[in-house]
Structures are given as structure tokens and as C-alpha cells.
Amino acid sequence: MTKRTSAKYKIDRRMGENIWGRPKSPVNRRDYGPGQHGQRRKGKLSDFGIQLRAKQKLKGYYGDLTEKQFRRIYGEAERVKGDTGENLIGLLERRLDAVVYRAKFVPTVFAARQFVNHGHVLVNGKRVNIPSYRVKEGDVIEVRDKSKQMVAVLEAVQLAERDVPDYIEADHSKMTATFVRTPSLGDVPYPVVMEPNLVVEFYAKN
Asked: What is the SS3 assignment for 59?
């Protein structure tokens, strides 16, 4: 399991953006960075700084993945035919924890990782407890019977702050979701602008 090295709201503060679109994000109240020097006027970022920030934002969005994990996914995206940035988004969205989050079985992507880790999720009828498990088109993801009445699950389904995207078909009465297709960048409902092209530029130069 990837160690959660920083609280999700700290990531928001560091980026100066509400990257998950949550109503409780501190960025909604103060848009400066954390710490005693957070209110100092921000200097203009270099090209490297802009690219690094785009990488950190995308990496943070998916549960603050480790650099090793993220770099490995990027390497796969680079090897596959097509646009590397689009491939990267597609691979990230095919992670089991991302699909569980998108299907609104849990309130946050951090909760999704824990939910999968604790064995609450079935893929095509078989229990899978690896958050990075890669879902294929047509796979059916289901909340285990014993877990369907968990308070966190029932509350997540009612969340009005986000909708299930059209590349996932979710049936909340049965707590099942089908991964219909791999999305492109324009299909993914990010609350903020993600720039995988800058991530590609970052890794190309570093």
C-alpha cells in the first residue's frame, strides 16, 4: 500500500487549487500556500517549475502516488502507440481505486485506495485488493455484499458534488459499475485543468 505521506488538503494548499472540487477544501477560504511564508507574493514560475507543478498536481489527484509508481505508469504510456499524455490519463483512470472513486462508491480517492486494500471490492466476481490493479473495458466492479451497507458507501452515493462520468456505468441500487471504455483527457471530470502535455515535457527533459 502506498503510504499516504501528506493530508489531502495539504496537497490542495500546496497547489493553491481545489484539485478534487471538494466543498471543505481550505483553498475555498484562502488561496495562498501553507506555512508561515505562504502569503508571500508568488514569484513567476520557470518552465521547469510549471512542468513540475503539473506533474505534482496530476500525481496528487490520484491519491498522491509515489514518484516511482507515477514514473512507471508514465513509462508505459510512452511505450504505447499514440499520444503519451492521453495514454497517461487512460492508464491512471484504469486503476481500480480510480474506478471505485469515479463510480461514487467512496467519497475520496484516498478512501478508494483503503476500500480496495481492505478487500471490499470484487472485479468480475473475484475479490481484488490491489488499488493499482488495471481494469479492462467491460470489467464489472462490485462492492462486496458485506460492505454494501457501510455508512461511508451509502453517504458517498448521495454526494452531489460530482457525477459518475459516462465511461463508467454505475448501478447504485446493486452497487456495481461497468468500465465501458478508456477515457481521453476531455472525458475525465477534473475540477481543475490538468495538463498531461506538461508532464510529458517534464519527463522528456529530466
From this structure: helix
How far is residue 86 CA from its own chain's centroid?
Answer: 15
Q: What is the spatial distance between Cα 131 and Cα 116, in angstroms, rounded to a whole number?
A: 6
Coil, helix or strand for 177?
strand
For residue 134, the cross-strand partners are: 95
In this prediction the pTM is: 0.82
Alpha-carbon distance of 175 to 104, in angstroms, equals 9
Give 56's contacts (C-beta < 8 A, 6+ positions apart). 14, 15
Spatial distance between the Cα atoms of 157 and 173, rounded to a whole number of angstroms:
10
pLDDT in tens, 125-137: 999 999 999 999 9
Locate the DSSP E strands across the chain.
Answer: 121-123, 126-127, 140-143, 168-171, 176-179
Q: How far apart are CA 165 and CA 8, in angstroms?
A: 22
- Burial (CB < 10 A; 0-12, 13-18, 19+), residue 164, is middle
Res 4 pLDDT > 80: no
Q: 157 and 177 in contact (C-beta within 8 Å)?
A: no
Whether residue 66 has pLDDT greater than 90:
yes
